Amino acid sequence: MLINNSRYYPLFIFILLSHFVCAQNAASGKIVDAKTNKELTGVDVFINESNKPALTTTSGNFAVQSDSIIYKLKFLRKNYSLESINVTSENATNIFVKLSQEKESNIQEVVIHNERPKYKNKKENPAYAIMQKVWARKRNNGLDKFDTYTYKEYEKIQFDANNLDSAFMKKKIFNKLEFIFDYKDSTASGKIGLPVFLNEAVYENYGENRPSKRTKRLLVAQKTSGFQDNQIVTLTAKNLYRDINIYDNTLNYFDIGFPSPVGETGFSTYDYNLVDTISIRGENAFKIRYQPKRTEVLAFQGYLYIDTDSYAVLGATLKSTQKINVNFINGISTELEYDNPDENTFLPRKFVTEIEMTPFSKKKTAKSIVAKRSVDYSEYQFNKPLEDKVFKRTEEEYSDSFTDKDDAYWLKARPDSLSKTEQGIYDMLDKLQQTPKFNRIVKLYETLGSGYYNVKKLGIDIGPIFSVYGKNEVEGDRIRLGARTYFTRNDPWRVQFYTAYGFKDEQVKYGAEARFMFNRVNRFTVGAGTRRDILQLGVQLTNDDGIMARTFASSTIFARGENASLSSVNQTNIFTSIEPWKNFQIRLDGTMQSIKSANPDGFSLMYYKDGALRKTTNDSHFTLSLVARPGAKFSQTGIDRYEHGTLAPTIVLKYTRGVEGLFGSDFNYNKLQFLFYKPVLIGSWGKTLVSFEAGKNFDTVPLALQNVIPGNQSYSLAQNTFAQLNYYEFVADTYTTLHLEHHFNGKILSFIPLIKKLKLREIAFIRGAYGTLSNASKAINVEGFKYSAPSEHIYYEYGFGIENIGFGNLRIFRVDFNWRGNYLDRPNISTFGVKAGFQVGF
C-alpha cells in the first residue's frame, strides 16, 4: 500500500535522523547599558514582529524560544531606545545587546503594534498605490536582456541541531560518540547547538539568448562534510530547495505553491501596511509589512523593501505562519536581495532560506533541525563572446575528481569566511567516519532509504527489502530475494538479479540484467537481461521493456474480488540508449518473449492462429523510445541516477514493431504510443497532476499483446489506473486516457471550523478512457466475446480523497473515494470503492 517514489526516500531518512539529532528555535545572549556596560534587567524582549513580549528579563542574560524560526529580536526598556537585532544561525547563541539611554527631551511614546490598519477599501491603503506601481513596472530577470551572460554562484547548505541539553547528550545512542559535543556551542540558557552537516558548492553559469537560446550550469567545486559517499543525506539537502522569482504570482516551495506577496494577485491573500521609509544599500526604500488575511492558508508574512524612485524590489523577507500545513516542516524563512541595473530588470544578489524541520510534532516544545541554504551571486559579465565549446558537455565534468579542490581554493571562493562552528563540521564528520557505531547508524538510514543493504567489502547491495514477501492466487505466499553490484554511487556498470519462490505453485522464478555505460556525457549504454516470472499484465499502457524495470506487483494481499488474471512470462531483452541532448533519451530495445496464462482454469490467453488453437503467445519485437524530461535535475553521473524533486514533465513517444518468424514469433504488428505527464501549480489553489496517454495497434494481435485499459482490483492506490475497473475489462486497439488529479492543499477545508484543526487536505480527481476494438481482434481470442473497448461512451470515474492524515508533522496516509460513472450494467463490477495508501511527501 505504498506509493513508491524514490525521490521521497531521503525525506523518510530525514525523519529517522531527526529523531536522534534534533533541536528547536532559540536565541540567547546578554543585555548591557551602552555607556556603563552594566547588565540591565527588566528588559522586554520581542520575537520577530510580535507585539507581546516573549520575556521580561530578571538578569543581564536572556534566552527565548519560539515554535517558528526566529529572525529578529527587539529590546525595549523604559528610558532606553528601542534596539532591533537580526538573528541568524551564526549569532543566535551569543547576542550582545547594548541599550542606549534617551535624553528626556527626546523621549517619545514607543509603540510596538501588530494591528492591521483598517481602510474602507484597498485604494485608500498607501501600500496599494505603491504595489500598483510595482506591478505596472514589473521587472524581468536581467539575464534575459543580454545576448550573453556569465556569473558565479556560491551555495552553502547547513543542517544545525540546536537547543540540545545535557540530558540529550547522555542518550545511549551517543555512547562512544561523545566527542561530537566537543564541537558544540553553549548558550546562556545552558542549551547546546550542534552543526551536523555542511555542503558547499561553486557553480559557473553561462547563457546565450541570441542568436540561439542556450544555458550551462557547471559545478566546478563541491565540498561536503564527511558525506561525499552518503547519497541519502546529500540528496535530502539538495531536494529541500527550489529557485524562486519574487515577481511571480506563485512561489514554489517543496513543489507546493505559495502566493507571492509581490505577485499581482497578492491583495487577494495578503494585507499590506506601509510602515517606514529606510535606506537599503544606499537606496531609499519603502518598508511594507504584509501578512495573510487568513493564517490557515499556505502563505507568508514579512516585509517588502521597494525602491522609492524605480519601484523595484530591493529585498524581501518571507516567513511562514505558525499554522503552516506542510508535512515535516515547522517553519520557513527566506531573505532575498536584488540588484537593479536598470528600470526594467533585476539581478539576484543573495538568497538565504532557513527551513525548520521536525519529524512528528508542531508544538512549541518540539525538537527540530534547521536547514539553512545561502546562495551568493557575483561576477556578472554581459555581452561577452562565448565559444560553442562552453555549452558542450565534456567527459572531464563527469569525473569523480573534477570537483576536488584544496583548502586554498575554498578560502578564495567563499564570499565570507566560515564561522568557527562551520569549520569544525568538517573535522567532526571526518572523525565520525572512523567510528564504527556512526557507520552502523548511517547504514541503517541508507538501507531504509534505498531499499538495499550494502555489503561494502563485496560491492553488493542485497534487496530490495520491501519486496521480500508477497501473495497472489497462483503462487500463494511468495518470497523474493535479490542483489545488485554497488561499489560507488557513480558506477558505470551494474549487474542485478532476483529469485522468487511460490509456496502454492512450488515454482522458482528469476530475473537478471546487466548494464554498462560507455560514456558519462551522452550516457551511451547497453544492456541485456532475462526473466521467468508470474506478472500482472494489463495495468500499464506505456511500459518499459527493461527486465528489472519497476512493474505493477503480482502480489496483492488485500483485493477487491479474486484476481486470477496473472500471466506466466519468459522474456529476454537487449537494449541500447543514448542522450544526445541533456534530458532527452533515445532508446532501442529488442525483446523476445513467450506469454501464457498462469492460471488456465480461471484466465484464458488462448487464441487462434491459422485455424489452430494456441495457448502461448510467442513474440519478438523492437521498440524505439524517445523520452524527454525538460527541466529535470539529477544527482550523480553513474548508470543509476537520483532525481531531484521538480515540476519537470515526462514526454514519451514509442514505436513497437513485431517481426513474425524472428525466433519463432507469431505476429507482425506495429504499435504507436504517446505519454505526457506534468505536475502544474495552480497558484494558491494547489497542484494538478495531468497524465495523458494515447496509442494504437495497427494490426490484429491476441490479448497478450493488446492494449488493456489499466484496472486496479486492489485496495491500494496505484497511479494511472482506473480504480473501479476490473483487470482486462476494457481492451482496445486504439485508446486515449486522461487522468486529472488536483491537490487543494487544504484550501477548502481550512474554512470549516473544527475540521481545519485536523489540517487535512482535499483531493479531487476525474479519469476518462476512450477506445475501439476491431471485430478481428475480438475473433482471434478464444474468449474474445468477453472483451470490448469503451467505444460507446467515454468511460469515466470521479471522486475525492483526503490526504495529510496523521498527527503532528507525520501525516502520510491518504484515502480515496471512487465512483464509477457509467457502464454500470456490466456483471461483477463495483460502482463505488475506497482506496488507501501512504504518501511520503511534503
UniProtKB/TrEMBL annotation:
Record InterPro entries: DUF5686
Entry annotated with the keyword Magnesium: no
Keywords: Signal
Coiled-coil regions listed in the entry: none
Protein name, UniProt field: CarboxypepD_reg-like domain-containing protein
Domain of life: Bacteria
Segment forming the signal sequence: 1-23
